[in-house]
Design a protein that fits this description.
This protein starts with a helix and ends with a helix. The chain is globular and about 40 Å long. Helix 1 (2-19) packs antiparallel against helix 3 (108-117) and helix 4 (120-134) crosses helix 5. The chain has an eight-stranded mixed β-sheet with strand order 1-2-4-3-5-6-7-8, sandwiched between helices. The chain has one domain: Rossmann fold, CATH 3.40.50.1820. The model is unreliable at 1-26 (pLDDT under 50). Helix content is 39%, strand content 20%. The chain is of the alpha/beta class. The protein contains seven helices and eight strands.
Amino acid sequence: MKKLFIALISILNLSYLQTAKAQTPTNPASFSPNDHSTMVSFKTLDGTLANAFYIPCDSVTGNVLIIFHEQWGLTNEVIKEAQKWKAELGNVDVYAIDMFGGKVTSDPGVSMKYLQALDEARSGNIIRGLLSHIGIDKRIITMGWGEGAHWAFRAAMIAGDQAIGCVMYYGKPEKEDKDVRGLHFDVLYNWASRDKYIQKQFVDDFGHRIELQKRKFEMHTYNADPMFADPSNPRHDAVLTAEADKYSKNFMKLKFQIE
């Protein structure tokens, strides 16, 4: 059943990606930020290296935000999002993790190949590698869009009691009780109501599973297509993105205890 579910997601994702092709993303290395940010490398549990775009706080902080990109890879648009959230939150270190090993694309077919090549073992090793790099004395919130929202939730689960929150912009919710068992964090989910696959019942069931773990589930609904908060998407809705970002900001500031 799980294999069938994954296969169905792949077919529906590809169908949607073909109609919502991103503008051509560019390699993060070509982007010149005006802060102390840098690309950092870290070892993963399988012995290879992975990368993340890192924006440090000006002073020592115990707060860390980990951002997960969408299906296109760690594009300049994602880096700009990382910079935006650093500016919005202030007292936080921000990491935008690269799940595709430096690969970026604007082609839906290529994007799907990247996703299919990244199995759960490899993605888990990348996430654990970054968590080890960050250290055990930090409070962590994860955030992602689309497929990145799924990785963000997994990362928060892997982080254990270090995780204090997860922000999901659409993205497939977990459907099995075992995948939310033992979570230590609250979840904010921004749902696109015109999503043809991720229907409200799926999100409601996801929220119910989280609440059974005695954690809070906050859901906000938008009359929009999936990927509405992706600035590189032709269907990007700036007004609804700003509204969703407001809820996300309030959620994260509360969890990080930022004034």
